[in-house]
Write a structure and sequence with these properties.
This protein has about 150 residues and is mainly alpha-helical. The chain contains six helices and no strands. It has helices at about 5-20, 25-40, 40-65, 70-85, 90-115, 125-130. The longest helix has 28 residues, at about 90-115.
Length: about 150
């Protein structure tokens, strides 16, 4: 493919959009929340412990309730998850993550619609998913009447 002036202009616009996204309030809030979580040594250790517990949980899930540690690991994983979910810094990170994802979904929606109304736009937010031509996503096995 030859590089034309049109492509160069598009790439310049992409660079500008990328810079705008990275300098957005949502991106800065996400970075701040991320650093608050992962620079806290106690919380970081708690997250690593939860990760190890999740790995053990996945091993137990292979055998289900027949695994000897099934009840113990199920109880532990729920307690650890709840402890992390109730942590104020983790909750702030999740909210910042959702806000940033909403921004990215909105940008994808605007770009997709500027190309064509028929463009399928994956989105985590139901508002943007319902605005796409395939409202429920194409995971319905062709039952959504879109022409995927």
């Amino acid at each position: 493919m030859l590089m034309t002036s049109d492509w160069i202009m598009i790439l310049d616009e992409v660079d500008e959009l990328s810079a705008m996204i990275l300098s957005s309030t949502q991106a800065q809030q996400y970075r701040d929340a991320y650093h608050a979580v992962y620079e806290d040594e106690a919380l970081s250790a708690q997250i690593k412990t939860f990760q190890r517990l999740k790995d053990h949980y996945e091993d137990v899930q292979r055998f289900g309730k027949y695994h000897p540690d099934y009840n113990t690991i199920m109880k532990k994983i729920r307690m650890e998850k709840r402890a992390l979910d109730l942590n104020e810094q983790v909750a702030s990170l999740k909210l910042a993550e959702n806000d940033y994802q909403d921004l990215l979904d909105e940008i994808s929606f605007i770009i997709g619609r500027s190309v064509s109304e028929a463009v399928k736009i994956p989105a985590s937010n139901p508002f943007f998913a319902s605005g796409s031509s395939c409202g429920s996503g194409c995971g319905t096995g062709g039952g959504c009447s879109c022409s995927a």
